[in-house]
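Z., the sequence and structure:
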Amino acid sequence: MRMPPVVASRLRATDVRHFAGDSTFHQVARAVCTADAAIARKELPECWAMAERIHDEFWRSEPPRRVVDVAAGHGLLGWFLLALCYQARAPLPVVYAVDERMPSSAGKIRDSFGEAFPRLRAQHRYIVGDARDVEATSDTLVAGLHACGGLSDIVIDVALEGSSALALVPCCHSTKISHDAAAAAKVGLDEAIDAARARRLAAAGWAVERDVLCSREITPKNGLILGRPPSVSVGEARPLYPRSLPPLSFGWRGVVRGS
């Protein structure tokens, strides 16, 4: 997804003029600009690429009823995914954007998307809390876009414990993360760590795919890990709500409590 070359490094209301088309991408881009929240320019194409990939991969058969966006920041990924589902007339999930703090930009984005896509407002909740408190279920997709350092492993933990689908773009690889030093010397630290993460999922029975999310021009940390859990048996109970997340009638913003 190429951005107009005249767009500044941070998107403001005046940048709406660069997105005058009728495509879903242009519609969400206008909503981001209208929010006037000074969102970093690169977050638009990278969040859009992640939302498109999630939609293409996981809305083919039985779509997830919930999406947990870990380290959600502004909450863009969830809004973009909801917009794609809405335009495709696909089932709308409830998106829980989870982060340790809610930036003021998230409220501006909520208001802007609520005006541009009124049907989606009730589908997006911002949860202030620790990702380790999230307990997902088999009808949940757990997502992490640029989950920094060990947070990527927490995202994987949540998916494994809940038998949940996974879409993860790791970031901030570090020698502090457990890794095979010999493999790192041979293929590089980033590859060694992410390959080990993929093997961990595969060992647990997940169907794992590794790919590139987008071009390095958009973001150099573009490695994508997709995971699908083993098939859930017909007789398996599927709890309506994750233990640590609020029920669907809960307001837009909440606080995750520990178990």
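The mean pLDDT is 86. The two ends are 41 Å apart (CA to CA).

Let me know what you think.
H.
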